[in-house]
Amino acid sequence: MAWWTIRTRKVSFAGSFVAMLCAQALITACAVLLDAGSRSTPAQGGADVVSFVVPFGFICLFVMVFAVGGAFSLSVQQRIREVALLRAVAATPGQVRRLIAYEALVVTGIAAVPGCGLGVLLAGGLRAWLVAQGMIPAAFPLDFGPLSILTALLICWITAESAVWSSGRRASRVRAVQALSEASLPRRRAGSVRTGCGLAVLAGGVWGLAAIYGSGGSDAANSAVAMVMVLMIAVGLLAPWTGKLAGAGLGLLCQALFPVVGQLVRTNLTTGYRRLGAAATPLALTVAFAAVALFVPQMKWHEQQQQDGQRMMADQVVQSTGNGLPATAARTLRDIRGTGAALGTMGTYVTVAVDDDGSQPGSGGIAQAVTGGPLDEVLDLGVVQGTAHELGPRDVALSRDLARRAHVRAGDEVRLAMEDDRTEKVKVAAVYSRSRGFGEAVVPQRLTAGHLSDGQLLQDAVYMRAKPGQGNQLADGLAKLHRAEPSWHVLDRDAYRAEALRRQDASMIATYLLLVVVTVFTSISVVNTLVMTTMERSGEFALLRLIGATRKQVARMMRLETAVIVLAALLVGALVAGAVLSVFSHALTGSARPHLAGITLALILGGAGILALATGVSTTRMALRQRPTTALRGAG
């Protein structure tokens, strides 16, 4: 019976099939790459692939739940009359639930072969892209087993079954005697269990954002980004209420602006609030996710560039094109004519220990180990407590964020756990504010020399300041040194900023890839939902035309309804993204007003709106091509 239902209701299941096909392609690609990464050695780039695929796959899985769940749930809602007929002819609730579950299984099985095939091809394309970007070596083998594909299929099938469970349960509980009467009218009341779960998730998301807003810091900023998923789950659960509120408020606006057609639009929106909420949710997800995915890295780089420009006091920066500069690089560069100050830095990791032996984990982060010399002459760290002119052998400087998390101030003595987990007793000489793109702590290089995991003391960069009026002499001396040591790369301030922009563009490529994949997936979900909800109403359109409405009037009515869906989705998506970005901005910069590029914002909102409007208008035209009598027979 499930196979027969799918064959006779191809239009109703087309959206579910497309959503499942895309879901299987994405999840299979992630599973294949994850399997290949776990089979590869670190030298082949296995760990790099796993670190890339895990967050990528998690986000794809989250979006897949919305897309697949929405498509399957909508297909069940569209066939509520058929379910009612089955109940009227003595089908039990359990049989109805099993029929809907078998339908999800059949759709999953039909989409398995093309979906898994596309997933393997996508995995090969992602591997080639990662190699081209230099993220993994070309020797990385795409070696995977059948278990990864079976796991992807199982994940997609469980997601589909979970999506239809609540819809099937609701449909199967209709009494047989009341089946046809209840199927003829939309359900007027939102489910209490779903509403309660949605309010609970929403309350948790708001509480989480409030806690993050009060804590601040880089860790809090990263946690704020994850809250967009929590809020979108709440939006999905509260979709009927979103449809109710949007239908009531925007329906009145349509009636005021267009008295004749607006009255019909308002009636349709208030009675079909579930349809409105189901259509607006994937579009809101597209807007919210695209805004957060684009603006969060842009805000990070904007803040980092600002702090980098304020921090940079050096005239020249010397870096290595190889593994690093020798430990004596800073001493060598100090001897160049015109040098006023030269300070070498090396990246490391430190933790402010909670106890004396460092057995309990504390707050930590990336640190910069510096050579001796006047620190504030080459780097203005924005010291807010103490002084950082020249660190003593047991003096350290901590960022304001790390000092707040570790509950220390300038002048306190703390135990600092180094790379090898051994601790050193040090004094906090200063607390500074400009840590973005630099590090959470500054420690003497001689203090870290005995704690390196690889035992090699190599400097990442040497910051140099010229003596007053001797900038040209310093530049000439560095050019001469570069000819003698070609691996020593010399950058002035402009070249240093250009190199930072190049690194920014390189780091954003992975973000753009994720955004493109997820946006395409969510856009397909938006199109599927709008097509299914519009084609479902072919009988309604035919009835309107039989009682005297023209095709233009019906098309105008649908344009207004689609505009309401778009406006409601943009408002909800913008509200979710705005709340997350505001909290993220406060945690990152101390200001709740995020730095947003107007062009990017217009592209996100305008692109989502144009996609939905174009889909709604074109689908309405397709539905109106049928003769009213033919459409009524098909709807019946």
Features:
six-stranded mixed barrel, about 625 residues, about 65% helix, 3 domains, elongated, alpha+beta
List the helices and strands and how they pair.
Elements: H1 2-8, H2 10-39, H3 46-78, H4 80-88, H5 93-132, H6 146-172, H7 179-184, H8 192-215, H9 218-237, H10 239-257, H11 259-271, H12 273-311, E1 316-320, H13 329-334, E2 339-352, E3 363-370, E4 383-386, E5 395-399, H14 400-406, E6 413-417, E7 423-432, E8 441-444, H15 445-448, E9 461-466, H16 471-484, E10 488-492, H17 493-535, H18 538-546, H19 551-589, H20 598-624, H21 628-635
Parallel strand pairs: 3-8, 5-7
Antiparallel strand pairs: 1-9, 1-10, 2-3, 2-6, 2-9, 4-7, 5-8, 6-7
Helix pairs in contact: 1-5, 2-3, 2-5, 2-6, 2-17, 3-6, 3-12, 3-17, 5-6, 8-9, 8-19, 9-12, 9-19, 10-11, 10-12, 10-19, 11-12, 11-19, 12-17, 12-19, 12-20, 17-20, 18-21, 19-20
* Rg of Cα set: 30 Å
Please count the beta strands (DSSP E, at least 2 residues each).
10
Number of helices: 21
Helix content: 55-70%
- Overall body shape: elongated
Task: Give an overview in words.
The protein has 636 residues and is an alpha+beta fold. Helix content is 67%, strand content 10%. It has three domains: 1-185, no CATH class; 188-311 and 501-636, no CATH class; 323-486, no CATH class. The chain contains 21 helices and ten strands. It has a six-stranded mixed barrel with strand order 2-3-8-5-7-6. A hairpin with a 5-residue loop joins β6 (413-417) and β7. The longest helix is centred in the C-terminal third of the chain and has 43 residues, at 493-535. 45% of the residues are buried. The model has no long low-confidence stretch (mean pLDDT 81).
